[in-house]
């Protein structure tokens, strides 16, 4: 499990390989990830946007921006957490992801970035 803490927002990530698929005649490797966002601060926060940088071993980079996560903009009270699962497809058997969540602090009304640390995506057969 990979973890980071930014301004009291703890992000924990677990990944898993889902299988190999052929899409549009190209082999793709499917990965799933589960992320828990825990509010260890004393303020109520809301996740309003996400920014991902997805890289694979073939040096392909995909940048993803969007509102919320999996169609939601969760409000997270102090001491509570929000967990969701999603996934991505890579053209290589391993790669990585990282990025940040744009959060708003309800006490200050200011936005900040909660850093999503780099986490690896790898197929079991690509490990040494």
Automatic annotation (TrEMBL):
<dbReference type="Pfam" id="PF04379">
    <property type="entry name" value="DUF525"/>
</dbReference>
<feature type="domain" description="ApaG">
    <location>
        <begin position="3"/>
        <end position="128"/>
    </location>
</feature>
<protein>
    <submittedName>
        <fullName>Co2+/Mg2+ efflux protein ApaG</fullName>
    </submittedName>
</protein>
<dbReference type="InterPro" id="IPR050718">
    <property type="entry name" value="ApaG-like"/>
</dbReference>
<dbReference type="InterPro" id="IPR036767">
    <property type="entry name" value="ApaG_sf"/>
</dbReference>
<dbReference type="InterPro" id="IPR007474">
    <property type="entry name" value="ApaG_domain"/>
</dbReference>
């Amino acid at each position: 499990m990979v973890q980071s803490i930014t301004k009291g927002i703890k992000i924990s990530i677990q990944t898993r390989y889902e299988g190999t698929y052929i899409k549009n005649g190209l082999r793709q490797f499917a990965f799933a990830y589960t992320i828990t966002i825990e509010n260890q601060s004393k303020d109520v926060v809301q996740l309003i946007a996400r920014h991902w940088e997805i890289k694979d071993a073939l040096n392909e980079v995909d940048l993803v921006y969007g509102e919320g996560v999996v169609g939601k903009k969760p409000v997270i009270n102090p001491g509570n957490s929000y967990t969701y699962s999603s996934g991505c497809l890579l053209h290589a058997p391993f790669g990585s992801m990282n990025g940040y969540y744009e959060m708003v602090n309800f006490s200050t009304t200011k936005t900040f970035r909660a850093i999503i640390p780099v986490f690896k995506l790898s197929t079991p057969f690509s490990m040494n």
